[in-house]
Fold:
Amino acid sequence: MHTKSLSELAADLKSGAYSSVELTQYFLDRINRYNTALNAFITVTDESALSRAKAADEQIAAGSAGALTGIPLAYKDIFCTDGVRTSAGSKMLDNFIAPYNATVVEKLNQAGMPMLGKTNMDEFAMGSSNENSYYGVVKNPWDLARIPGGSSGGSAATVAARLSPVATGTDTGGSIRQPAAMTGITGIKPTYGRVSRFGMIAYASSLDQGGVFGTSAEDCALVLTAMSGFDEKDSTSAEHAVPDFSASLKDSLAGLKIGLPKEYFEEGLDAQVEKSIQEAIEAYRKMGAEIIEISLPNTPLAIPAYYVVAPAECSSNLSRLDGVRYGYRCENAKDLTDHYMRSRGEAFGVEVKRRIMVGTYALSAGYYDAYYLKAQQIRRLISEDFQKAFETVDVIMGPVAPNTAFKIGEKSDDPVGMYLSDIYTISVNLAGLPAMSLPVASVNNLPVGLQIIGNYFDEAKMLNIAHQYQQVSDHHQQIPTAFDVTRGGE
Ligand code: GLN
Structure:
């Protein structure tokens, strides 16, 4: 069952080959067997998963099933789930039981998808390696000594090892695309505003966007259709019609204009990763696409701008976690100041503290113009670069990350080095554009992801482009040996 696509699973459920309860139990068993090695889940919700699966079976029997009814999934532990711990990977929220569902959770519940559990992540989604989680590092299923990417590393590892058919994620600066690339799966971050942020614990509100991981573009398309749409509870949600993202998957790519930004192929990109990307582009040329070199000249400014804007917004968003309302509370506070300082000091991790300090500094009266305002101006220039490019090309392609998955601990003492690995992903968030990653190669048995960046609300086209590649390649079907009994795993 773990090798089947969502539409195959749905067909099997409808034909009665197995029930949703059996399917859900099958994945719970896989989690039980493999999660200790991966540390991909923070919470497993077996009981509620099975009771939802039972309800889905009744719906299927009544003939009122939709495309996803009865197919289980996992949620990044940043999506609020009613009655279930929602930790955001932090000691601060280790005791937080969400009193309501995020809109995404509500929508996927309505679609009939049982929740298997909540996945591990970098604390408050800050990180690129999943080493910043209070619950410990997540391992990459392709090599347990390596990181799975971050911040949605738990979701990515879960799908890569087939512990869940699909999983949700969030992407503020690359946190869906980069872990998808590092673990050899498909992940899409839609246009800012496409998916409601209501009930998604905020990191940097003007950059955060929810999305999905699957093993294929086809699977991502199905789930993205169900999770997208205007939400009056999110003031930045877009009033934009949601197409059926599955409808155009089979469209021909003849005449497609693909832009390759020259700045994405300069110094810093690993030679073997570059070669893999070029080979994938060549495959697109064979499918009838035209390849055009473009320039995104402000790319070098993206990291400095992002690492001002994101910390500034996080310092404001995280100020609500003060030990008074909810979350961690220190013991025996001497007075209110001591209460605030120790509650926050004891519960936040090093990276979160670093960013709160940077953000507070950047927003302080004397420095606002020099840092925050400047970063916002750069953000505008970066958006304009993309808009100029989209006058001549339909989509942009390039690498997701400069390297394949690195070793656990390799960059822990080098925050700036870690930030630099976000070079190809963060411009997209600054501009609010949709982008995705799909697996196109394996270098020393480690996956390489190709990034596709689209214009606003062009997710259908991007998914079509990714799907066409997956019709002529089998990278997306590769399962790490240790997690597949049919290939010699345990
Ligand atoms: N690595 C980036 C950061 O640490 C992006 C994280 C994300 O997208 N949530 O901020």
Summary: Residues 125-128, 151, 171-175, 203, 310, 422 surround glutamine (CB under 6 Å). The radius of gyration is 21 Å.
